Amino acid sequence: MAVVAPEQEVRAEAKWVRSSARKARLVVEHIRGLSVPEARTVLAFSTRAVAHDVEKVLHSAVSNAESNPNLNWSGDDLYVSAAYVDEGPTIKRFQMRARGRMGRINKRTCHITIKLAQRPEAVAAEQTPTRRRRRQTTEQPQQTEQPQQTEQIEQTEEATA
């Protein structure tokens, strides 16, 4: 029976981010499954305010991967294996309304988690030694093809004449 080694992951989490989980999930869905350089590009050009917070978490996860002495991972070889947003506690505030009433204001928070793993190609490259293979060339004489084509053209010209 083949034993599959568990995939190593590095994670970073930001708690009590002052944004609703619904808004943060819209941004996180865009980077899930992308490589780290692609995810940084997507977040840099995102117009949403919470993209800045997600970018901080991504930067923290990459730093965790690079500073871990057991892994020796490079930030360019990583991809976002999992990214999700959970709801945090809601801060409740009240605002005075007309006729002595109060309106409740919910200030929502969320917890952003990003997990990074090494690309499968990078893992395979580390485990297998690189070998050069000789390219097998099939000899196809190109010179013989051109005279045949010209002979066919000459034969068609003679037949039409």
Keywords:
alpha+beta; Ribosomal Protein L22, Chain A; three-stranded antiparallel β-sheet
Write the layout of secondary structure elements.
Blueprint: E1 10-17, H1 21-31, H2 36-44, H3 50-67, E2 78-87, E3 91-96, E4 102-107, E5 110-118, H4 120-127, H5 142-160
Antiparallel strand pairs: 1-5, 2-5, 3-4
Describe the protein.
There is one protein chain. With 161 residues, this protein is an alpha+beta fold. It has one domain: Ribosomal protein L22/L17 (Ribosomal Protein L22, Chain A, Alpha-Beta Complex). The protein is 40% helix and 24% strand. The chain is built from five helices and five strands; from the N terminus they run E-H-H-H-E-E-E-E-H-H. The strands form two sheets. Strands 1-5-2 form a three-stranded antiparallel sheet. A two-stranded antiparallel sheet has the order 3-4. Helix 2 runs antiparallel to helix 3 (50-67). The model has no long low-confidence stretch (mean pLDDT 86).
Looking at CATH, the homologous superfamily is Ribosomal protein L22/L17
State the low-pLDDT regions, or none.
Answer: none
Q: Report the CATH C-level class.
A: Alpha Beta
Reading the helices and strands in chain order gives: EHHHEEEEHH
> From the helix content, strand content and strand pairing, which structural class follows?
alpha+beta
Largest sheet: 3 strands, antiparallel
- Count of runs of 4 or more consecutive helical residues: 5
**Mind telling me the C-alpha Rg?**
30 Å
Chain-averaged pLDDT: 86
Number of strands: 5
Largest sheet strand order: 1-5-2
CATH topology heading: Ribosomal Protein L22, Chain A
Q: Overall 3D geometry?
A: elongated
Instruction: Give the strand content.
Output: 15-25%
Architecture, CATH level 2? Answer: Alpha-Beta Complex
